[in-house]
Write the structure tokens for this entry.
Amino acid sequence: MGALTDAGRSLIAQINAGAATHPPLAELSMRFVLEGALQHAQPLSRAGYYESTRVLYSAVLDYDVGDFGFDRIELVLGDVITAGVDLPATHHKWARNDDGEMGNFIQRTFVLDYERDTAPLVLTAAESWQYDMRDELLEVAQSQALPLAVSAACVSSQHVAAQAGRLIQSLDFREALADQQKEIDALREQVAALSAPPLPSTDPLSTRLWALEQSVERRYVRDIVIGGSTDYFYPVWWSMPNAGYGTTRIEITRPYFWNGGADERPLNAASAHQAHVHLQLEGNTTPWGGDGNYLVARHYSERYNKTVSHLSFSMRGERRNWAGELVGAVGPEGFPLAGSRQHSGVYLRGGGLKYRL
């Protein structure tokens, strides 16, 4: 939408009060500006009254001017800017006769409202060359949910047919797209019916087994809490299956804000940033197995506080008393100091910290 300048408001107020007369058409011009720099200026092509108190000022950029772009238009009386409007960047192209390329025809219009009857001042009736199409276009656009915005007061009569034609084409295109989408959805339903596996029986166990069979790769997630003291790391161990099950993938993670509540914060009482860890592991079988026998860390990251230590394919664990004396191994079968032949593992920091495996 355009806006009057202070000079424009003052001129209209003087004309309304009878203290000034409407300026002659020859004294008015229109300027085309791009990013603050003047690109083109020309006298008005015509002016006329519309609804007796509304005056339209138009400039036509014909095929014999150009090339230039503009993103602002200004209505000028002498050297004084009376009104301006910012627009999306537009390019006006001259008709290049040497290569046969046609230029474009652009008409831009300012509309000013007065309190006095302007018909005696501007004799050309705007209805002879302008049609106000805002209400009609907006009504159609809203009924069809089209992204159409009509900001100009009037549309040139030379472009009404083209504008209406484009709008009708847009509506036809939307209907064609809707019909095509219905056909696509119907085909998808047919393909899905042909490729879908047979439905399971109503038996709960059969339903669960059927769901597992449709899974390409299974993933088990479990949250654990390591108790004890934050001054110690505690053993967590596992046994990976053999090569018949492929590669075993294990992730040990925790976001930094876990245990960061105001009533928790075991590692840093002054901050919700407690500890982050992301450990990605791959492996196969156990040290005593006869297959791949390996464990590798694909990714490892920690922040704020250390929470992981002593990753080992052959898990080693021991138990000591309060005096630090060795009192025995830990684990379901006991871990010798040299390491377990049936378990891999890692040490995680305690103190109530939560981890996800």
The two ends are 59 Å apart (CA to CA). The longest strand covers residues 80-92. Helices lie at 6-17, 134-143, 160-195, 204-214. Residues 52 and 197 are 75 Å apart (CA to CA).
